[in-house]
Write a structure and sequence with these properties.
Keywords: Cell inner membrane, Cell membrane, Membrane, Transmembrane, Transmembrane helix, Transport. Helices cover 68% and strands 0% of the residues. The protein has 447 residues and is mostly helical. The longest helix has 26 residues, at 300-325. It is globular, with a radius of gyration of 22 Å.
Length: 447
């Protein structure tokens, strides 16, 4: 009977996730909350704990990020990124993804990639490099970047799960595994991706466009298509303040002695530290760069962040309710399977990322299972990071659509069969290489 109830309740959870995926956006949160209602009122389960700490981190980070965006900080960061990419045009399949990764880590969002896409496309094509190569890997690299950012929604969800007893695995412990794993994954993936698709000279579709005069030939004396951004002193100051806030969070994570003490005489946990630092950063941006506060809710970062928070609230509450009622069964049954074959954990995170296109949702859904199974925290963090590439397995993400539209050569394709698009192979390769590297780094110095 217990097994029947477990399977039935699991089907409710999965069904709500699927329905939320079909609705997308805030629909994920709505269906998650509805799932909680079914488990509580129909199956008489005790309500789980809503992810309050994670939500508070998401809200304050989104607020500070939106202040920075309104002040022009993201435009300034984009201009710096474009200059870095332009310095090594022949190595753009490696350099562009690394720059996209770096700036997504700093900003805590992959939205920074959008203005860079036309720059990447133009530089690649004019230097005779198939644009789909750097474009596809740059898009996918921003996925794993959010497992390396101290201020991403996914990291907020992760820290609130691991930075507690009995694990006490803090932000810096996670970053020292995920960052090198992601960098190694991007470097190795660039080698593979640089061989995907036909070269421009051998691609009949591109050559036909050149012959018809629709696009110029590579090496033509065309000016680079600059991202249409306005760089201002206020934007530079806002971005500097925000990035200093990110650096401060890392420093507090590295040196516990710098943190104030709580009521029990122990260093304050990183969750409130992140919240406090981001509040201060947002206030300093307000005082120094003077963005229009009334415009903050209209910023793209704010809108995307609020949607993520709602989705995180509903689905995380749903999974916590289910997991809380079946902790022993999962730890002994499913947990035993995950312990014996840890790659199943990575597959779980990957699949939830595919279904929900939300790394924070995948974190709150699957990581508790990995923790209950007793997977070493270092290994868990490394596999968690690599699986984030899964949000790009299907060609439904905004940055994928934008990359295809910016590619005037037509080499970047969205496909027609879900698996024939330009991002499919880069997603699988980056996930595999980052997971493998993450497992190695996790074994070396993880918890």
């Amino acid at each position: 009977m217990e097994t029947v109830l477990f399977v039935t309740q699991l089907l409710v959870v999965l069904g709500c996730i699927v329905m939320g995926t079909r609705s997308s956006g805030v629909g994920l949160g709505l269906w998650g909350g509805t799932g909680v209602a079914i488990l509580v009122f129909v199956f008489q389960l005790a309500p789980g704990n809503p992810p309050v700490d994670a939500l508070l981190i998401v809200l304050v980070v989104v607020l500070a990020s939106s202040m920075m965006q309104s002040a022009g900080g993201i435009d300034w960061m984009v201009s710096i990124a474009a200059k870095l990419i332009e310095k090594s045009p022949k190595q753009i399949t490696l350099v562009a993804p690394l720059v996209a990764f770096l700036f997504s880590v700093g900003a805590g969002t992959s939205n920074i990639l959008y203005p860079l896409l036309p720059v990447i496309q133009d530089l690649a094509y004019r230097n005779g490099i198939r644009p789909s190569r750097p474009l596809s890997l740059s898009v996918v690299a921003t996925g794993v970047a959010l497992a390396c950012s101290p201020v991403s929604a996914a990291m907020a969800a992760m820290v609130t799960l691991t930075d507690t007893a009995p694990w006490n695995f803090e932000l810096v412990d996670i970053l020292k595994v995920t960052i090198p794993a992601a960098v190694v994954g991007i470097v190795l993936s660039s080698i593979v991706v640089n061989r995907l698709g036909k070269d421009i000279a051998e691609d009949p579709e591109i050559q036909a466009k050149i012959a018809a005069g629709d696009i110029p030939a590579p090496h033509a004396n065309a000016q680079a298509v600059r991202a249409e951004v306005t760089v201002t002193k206020a934007g530079r100051n806002a971005a500097t303040i925000f990035l200093l806030g990110v650096a401060a969070i890392v420093v507090f994570g590295l040196f516990k002695g710098l943190r104030p003490l709580d009521a029990e005489g122990d260093p304050v946990a990183m969750t409130p530290i992140i919240e406090i630092v981001m509040f201060v950063a947002g206030t300093l941006i307000l005082l120094v760069s003077r963005p229009k506060v009334a415009e903050i809710p209209t910023m793209t970062v704010f809108k995307a962040g609020m949607v993520s928070a709602i989705a995180l609230f509903g689905l995380a509450w749903l999974t916590d309710t289910f997991l809380g009622a079946h902790t022993e069964l999962i730890a002994g049954g499913v947990g035993g399977l995950v312990t014996a074959v840890p790659w199943i954990f990575a597959l779980g995170v990957f699949l939830v990322c595919v279904l929900t296109t939300s790394q924070s949702t995948a974190t709150r859904t699957i990581v508790p299972i990995g923790l209950a199974a007793g997977i070493p925290l270092g290994l868990l963090s490394g596999m968690w990071a690599g699986a984030f590439a899964g949000i790009y397995l299907l060609p439904t993400n905004g940055s994928q659509i934008a990359a295809a539209n910016f590619d005037t050569s037509g080499s970047t394709k969205l496909g027609t069969k879900l698996v024939d698009h330009s991002f499919f192979v880069p997603t699988l390769v980056l996930a595999a290489t980052t997971i493998a590297a993450g497992a190695a780094f996790g074994a070396l110095w993880g918890g």
